[in-house]
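Q: Can I borrow your eye for a moment on a structure tokenisation matter? Would you mind producing a protein record, from residues through to fold? Write it directly below this note and I will take it from there.
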Amino acid sequence: MQTPFSFRLGELELMILSDGHQALAPAHPMIGPYEQPDHVLQSLRALQLPTDALQLDLNILLVRHQDKLILIDAGLGQEDTTSGLLPANLAAAGIPATAITDIVLTHAHTDHTGGLLHPDGAPVFPHATIHLSQTEYDYWMQGRPDFSASPLDIAPEMKTGLTTRIPQILRGIQPQLRLAAPRATLCDCIRLIPAPGHTLGHSMVEIFSGEDTLLHSADLLHAAVLLQHPEWGMFYDMDFGQAAHTRERILQEAANTGRMTMTYHLPWPGLGKIKKDNTGFEWEPVIPSGR
């Protein structure tokens, strides 16, 4: 059980909860798929990151706004043995799954959508409206997604897994699903920000209250090594070149503004600031008290 990390943003109450973690093995080519293995592994070791597998935390943001309880993504759920902790962590915080009113999906990869459904297909959050960009929905439901600009193009089994499971989940949540415009404002406190590349409809989320904002960077960063090498990317980037361009641009903007940023996959709670340094960028985390 992971104790939630709670904080305020203007009039909003925010909480970061864990759905557990996911390991993608081996670490190379999951990170830097087009780079020399020795170079990638050396860089991972320098940051004291594992080289046998890419370890991804699953950090879920909860926003309390008036009578709404809003999740940003829903975790991997029962798709893996090391995930699916979100409902229990919500319950431990006094929030039953039935109390969630809205879920904003940054994109449709299963580590963000797998937690929406029980293994039998029943909804985990039965009273929630689920928001997803129209662009992202159309991409996965068109029948034949384009992998030609992705490292996945040489991995037919992994492609099949995505093109089978993601539409399955999207069909399963259809009664709850509400499709959104690329820059939609949702629940009076959330804006979608298109950040294409990782997927076609990949969206970051800006949470706002008055002049206060928090950037949820979704899958901009899968590991800290991408701060030093934004161009390296990761194996699941659907348009590898576009993802690298988006990553560099957003990192530069975040460093210039010094804004508070949340990451989905960096070590829990994934909250901090992006700074510029001599070798690229660095992560300045906010560490919960007692951790």
The first helix runs from residue 27 to 30. The mean pLDDT is 96. Helices lie at 27-30, 37-46, 86-92, 110-113, 134-141, 156-172, 225-228, 240-257.
